[in-house]
Amino acid sequence: MPKTYQPSEKIPSSEITPEKHYYTRRQFIKLAAAAAATAALAACGVRPPESDPLPSSSQAPSASPPPAGDLSQELTSYEDVTTFNNFYEFGLDKGDPAKNAGQLKTSPWTVEVYGLVNRPRTFAFEDLLSSYTQEERIYRMRCVEGWSMVIPWQGFTLSQLLKAVEPTAEAKYVRFETLYRPEEMPGLNYNGFPWPYQEGLRLDEAMHNLTILSTGLYGKTLLPQNGAPLRLVVPWKYGFKSIKSIVKIELVAEQPATLWNTTAPREYGFYSNVNPDVPHPRWSQASERRIGEGGRRPTLLFNGYEKEVAGLYAGMDLRSNY
Ligand SMILES: Nc1nc2c(c(=O)[nH]1)N[C@H]1C(S)=C(S)[C@@H](COP(=O)(O)O)O[C@H]1N2
Ligand SMILES: [Mo]
Q1: Is 88 a pocket residue for ligand 1 (Cβ < 6 Å)?
Q2: If you count Cβ atoms within 10 Å of the first and of the last residue's Cβ in the chain, which end, N or C, has fewer?
């Protein structure tokens, strides 16, 4: 079992649903064997997807999705959320982060926010917790590999932090960077990626109300395997955009390089909006497997957040801007 942490003190307990309520809200179907089998295959697209794409209508998904706002009945179990992970700094297999990330030292932790801003600042993690309104957001999470979860995050809107540093008129994009500490992150020593892990958003995407910096899930402080102490969550984009264990946030004028776009530009674009009609070059994105569920369900445009975010891409060709 991964090391457990005390719930964050800064979030009023009245705002947190106790874990036992989460557990009783739905019946968790255990697919441990399936998860173990796919763990051997799945990687963020370097290796084959975690299961074959749905080839025909003969396996049409059975349940129609609930509205974006009502996901409380669909929560993925705490166990699955904290043991089935992608965090390549700790290894390529789904179980590696839970196994190897316990050694990550997440305190003290600072986040440097700089670049094209009037008020650059280095924040202590505790100050982020106390300065900005913390809330719970239950979001779908869709990995580009073809699996998904529903996760109750705690966190705060990235827009609050960005407003505090006052981006200049030249700032058009935000670049994020993960900690680079080979002594505590074994994958950095043997995985041939362009470390540190980097991601980016357009400034308007970063300012969107759905975009959060998460500090916890299920009412508990984030575990290292989920990106402690602070990770991005952008629910309408493929999971790899939601960069973990962030130490730098830079406001820039040009579209920043990202680890996955640098590694495989034709497979992972900068936008990476969830889109059932734009296949990955090596597999369909029309359907997905919800972890803890049998069968597959249809993938939703913008992961079900179309109403909220489609306006960001008005007039843009979603195929060429993949
Ligand atoms: N630094 C870093 N962030 C990362 C990754 C990673 O390997 N390194 N993997 C990404 C991918 S591919 C996914 S699907 C999500 C998984 O988040 P979770 O393990 O908390 O569900 O984290 C993303 N953030
Ligand atoms: Mo992913």
Answers
A1: yes
A2: N
Which domain does 172 fall in, by range? 3-313
Q: Give residue-wise pLDDT tens across range 138-154.
A: 999 999 999 999 999 99
In the chain, the number of structural domains is 1
In 3D space, the residue among 82, 96, 83, 92 whose CA is nearest the CA of residue 48 turns out to be: 92
Q: Which residue's CA is minimally distant from atom 7 of ligand 1?
A: 87
Cα of 265 vs centre of ligand 1, distance in Å, is: 18
Please indicate, yes or no, if residue 271 is contained in any of the structural domains: yes
Probe residue for ligand 1, chosen from 84, 87, 141, 193 as the CB with the greatest number of ligand atoms within 8 Å: 87
Contact 7, 216 (CB under 8 A): yes
Q: What letter does residue 3 receive in the DSSP assignment?
A: P
Atom of ligand 1 nearest to the CA of 260: 12
Tell me the pLDDT tens digit for each residue of 138-195. Answer: 999 999 999 999 999 999 999 999 999 999 999 999 999 999 999 999 999 988 899 9
User: How far is the CA of 156 from the CAs of 56, 142, 173, 232, in angstroms?
Assistant: 41, 20, 19, 10
C-alpha of residue 204 to centroid of ligand 1, in Å: 22
- Our separate counts of H helices and E strands in the chain read 10, 12
- Is residue 320 included in any domain, yes or no? no
Residue 60, pLDDT > 80, answer no
**Burial, 99: exposed, middle or buried (Cβ in 10 Å; 0-12, 13-18, 19+)?**
middle
Q: Tell me the pLDDT tens digit for each residue of 94-132.
A: 999 999 999 999 999 999 999 999 999 999 999 999 999
pTM for this entry: 0.83
User: Would 308 be classed as within a structural domain?
Assistant: yes
Q: Does 28 fall in a domain?
A: yes
Residues in the chain: 322
Give CA–CA dist 97/119, Å, rounded. 35
242 lines ligand 1 (CB under 6 A): yes
Residue 274 CB less than 6 A away from ligand 1? no
